[in-house]
Amino acid sequence: KQMDGSIKKGKVESRGFGMYVHFGSITVFVATAFMLTIGNLAMRQARAQFSCNFLACAGYEVVDNLGFETVEAGVEAAVAAKADIVVLCSSDDEYAEYAVPTFKALKGRAVFIVAGAPACTEELQANGITNFINVRSNVLDTLKEYNAQLLN
Q1: For site-directed labelling of 96, which of 10, 105, 126, 140 has its Cα 20 to 30 A away?
Q2: Which chain positions lie within coiled-coil regions (predicted)?
Q3: CATH number for the domain including 110?
Q4: In this structure, are 74 and 105 located in the same domain?
Q5: For residue 96, is pLDDT > 90?
C-alpha cells in the first residue's frame, strides 16, 4: 500500500517454479502449493481445505483439486502446474498406500507434505518423508521451515 492509501499494482512473472511479483525495485517470490487429492472423498476434501487455509497464511498461491484417480495423474498435474509444494490429501488409512509412491514420483521437484498425522508416520519418515501438517502443527514455525526449504 502506498502512502496515499492507493494500492500499487505489481508486474507478475512466472519463472519455472513459483511466481515473482515486481513492485518497482522490490521483487517478491510467491510459491505455489498444489493439493494432490486422492482416495476417500470426504477426507481428501477436508484435508485439502485445511491445507489450503494453513498454507495461504504464508501468502502461498494454493491450487485445490477435485481428486485424482492415480498417484501418477496427480504428480503429472502437480509438475504441469509448476508446484513448489505438493500436499498429499487423503485419509490416514490410505497414506500407507499413496505417500511413498507420490514422494518418489516427485523426485525432489517440490516440497512434499502429508496433510494429517497418520498411524504410519514412522514408516513414512523411514522413507524420507519429513513434512506433515495437522491441527497440532505450530503454523508460524511450520511455515518458517517451509519458507527456508523453498529458498534453499
Answers
A1: 140
A2: none
A3: 3.40.50.280
A4: yes
A5: yes
